[in-house]
Amino acid sequence: MVEKQSRWANLYLIIIFIVLYLPIFYLIFYSFNAGEYMQNFSGFSLKHYGELFADNRMLQIVLNTFVVALLSSLLATIIGTFGALGIYGVKNPLMKNVLLSLNNILLVSPDVIIGASFLIFFTLLGLGLGFGSVLMSHIAFSIPIVVLMVLPKLNEMSTTLVDAAQDLGANSWQVLTRVILPYLAPGIYAGFFMAFTYSLDDFAVTFFVTGNGFSTLAVEIYSRARQGVSLEINALSALMFIISLLLVTGYFFINQYNLKRKKQYKKGRNG
Amino acid sequence: MAQTIIEFKNVVKSYEETQVLKGVDLTIEAGKFYTLLGPSGSGKTTILRLIAGFSSATSGDIIFDGQRINDVPANKRRVNTVFQNYALFPNMNVFENVAFGMTLKGVSKGKIKEKVTSMLGMVQLAGYEDRSIDELSGGQQQRVAIARALANDPEILLLDEPLSALDYKLRKDMQYELRELQQRLGITFIFVTHDQEEALAMSDWIFVMNEGKILQNGTPVDIYDEPINHFVANFIGESNIIEGVMREDYLVSFAGKEFENVDAGMRPNERVEVVLRPEDLDLTTPENGKLVVTIDAQSFRGDYYEISAHDDDNNEWRIQATNPSIINTRQGLTFDPEDIHIMRFDESEDDFDARLENYED
């Protein structure tokens, strides 16, 4: 009975993964099409990859996207970490809840509304739209993500750790840099990568605040898709999928390696 | 008399409405092993935190080496703490943990290495420098925490229930080790615990606390033999506490009979409480007994039998005997005059000490 159940569960899992991955593989498959459309596979060819690498505008946009993602997630991580420390330090529970709710509202509110409000905000201030406005809005929507990743780690930290550091002679700055931040590191890294991916694939907010001369991948693909997706986009998607795949496998192996090393250490100690 | 190192003068600590310390006075002399003993919530950890500087007194003076230190921050005090959960830094290995205080002070690398090696040797963890914290057992983490605190050469080492997370055997071993360490280093130890056995075994001097007050302080023997009131008698060891009347000096009546004893200095016919320790009571034949009791139950405790019984006045008695007894039989109960300890109701510690002073030679 149990075995039967687990077989059904496996089947269910397999179907779900097929449904999730099939469109991506379909896309990648046609990136190798010798023809111009996602119909009638007429033969294997790398010509769309060639087109992609010859398309300077596209490469510039890829670069833009990564620069914005890297810068915005970096700055958001710094601001968000201190924000989390600030919220953690608030003694009044009501005040704390208000701050947390304000943080969470930004997370759940639709991107369209955030994008529109940024547009209004930047226009009111008379700031030009372009790299600056995109960067600032990406920082803004990434901060709550970082706060959300760092705060649980802070709450989990025993307060006696801070007491212990002070007890051993650390001033506030030393407590922060030598004890608290290293402890929070996993949360900070997680926040950084979350912010990075959010920024990479953000469409709605960017769409509102991007100007004439500046574009990111999501916006560019959208505008090209309106004239029918060229297979160059497929080639780009395939490349990005492979890069993400490599990153995930790399992460998996590093984790595996660390776990194994730790286990061996323990075995050596007990044996 | 040794030099006073810490003094509390009428120290009060309140959190919003609740007072957790209600005007505490205490004096701590350099080089001794002190224990703050009390149930949870008695304020013993609060005293420790006030000495360490993690919280500040609502009123009163805390004096360290003749200077008021109420406003000196924790990182400037020559006091180090061993925490209940050890509070080792998980992002550092054993060496870095022990070296932490010295690194902050800018001690040279060579000196740090030398000191860490000697500290780890002292707590029997030589060669553990490169281990990470989560690879250590609870007992080993405990030792690292002690080494880390002592590496700063504190004047006082504060220990906040450091043994409570260890198993029984390890706890016993650590008691001996801590006691031995304190005597070797000559540093003042202030140890917080709710375990009376631990307090009796390790301390030079015990402060018994309850509800934010120090009820009694003295050597372990004094506190065990002469508890000041019902709470202390019950908290330190097991006791039979019976209401009685002090007829005159050296004569007390309880359980319907009069007994010779060794206490004096009370009003004639004053109502008192009488304490008899279970290990001071012996069972005998009913004819030879000072009291006659009926055995209710007994349980085997390894080195003794714990027997519960009741007398004809329906007072409960607990007796520790080396030989088993028979349930529902009547037995005689004997004890010596010195085994009877008298406690007055609401006697302050000063009056108690003065009275003892008066009639004890």
Automatic annotation (TrEMBL), chain A:
Q: What is its main location?
A: membrane
List the record's Gene Ontology CC terms alphabetically. Answer: plasma membrane
Per the UniProt entry, the signal peptide is none
Alphabetical list of SUPFAM superfamilies matching this protein:
MetI-like (SSF161098)
Looking up InterPro entries in the UniProt record yields: Bact_Polyamine_Transport, MetI-like, MetI-like_sf
- Gene Ontology BP terms: transmembrane transport
Q: Name one Pfam family in it.
A: BPD_transp_1
The ABC transmembrane type-1 domain covers 62-254
Localization per record: Cell membrane
Asked whether the UniProt record includes Cell membrane among its keywords, one would answer: yes
> How is this protein situated with respect to the membrane?
Multi-pass membrane protein
Regions crossing the membrane: 12-32, 61-90, 102-125, 131-151, 180-200, 233-254
Keywords (alphabetical) are: Cell membrane, Membrane, Transmembrane, Transmembrane helix, Transport
PANTHER family, alphabetically?
PUTRESCINE TRANSPORT SYSTEM PERMEASE PROTEIN POTI
What family does the database annotate?
Belongs to the binding-protein-dependent transport system permease family. CysTW subfamily.
Know the name of this protein?
ABC transporter permease
Automatic annotation (TrEMBL), chain B:
Stated family = Belongs to the ABC transporter superfamily. Spermidine/putrescine importer (TC 3.A.1.11.1) family.
Mind telling me which NCBIfam families this protein's record contains?
Answer: potA
Has keyword Transport?
A: yes
Q: Which reaction does it catalyse?
A: ATP + H2O + polyamine-[polyamine-binding protein]Side 1 = ADP + phosphate + polyamineSide 2 + [polyamine-binding protein]Side 1
PROSITE patterns the record matches = ABC_TRANSPORTER_1, ABC_TRANSPORTER_2
- Give residue ranges for domain ABC transporter: 6-236
Subunit relationships: The complex is composed of two ATP-binding proteins (PotA), two transmembrane proteins (PotB and PotC) and a solute-binding protein (PotD).
A GO MF label: ATP binding
What keywords are assigned to this protein?
A: ATP-binding, Cell membrane, Membrane, Nucleotide-binding, Translocase, Transport
Protein name listed in UniProt: Spermidine/putrescine import ATP-binding protein PotA
Q: What is its EC number?
A: 7.6.2.11
Q: Which GO terms describe its biological process?
A: quaternary ammonium group transport
Asked if the Swiss-Prot or TrEMBL record annotates the protein with the keyword Membrane, the reply is: yes
Q: Name one GO cellular component term.
A: ATP-binding cassette (ABC) transporter complex
Q: What does this protein do?
A: Part of the ABC transporter complex PotABCD involved in spermidine/putrescine import. Responsible for energy coupling to the transport system.
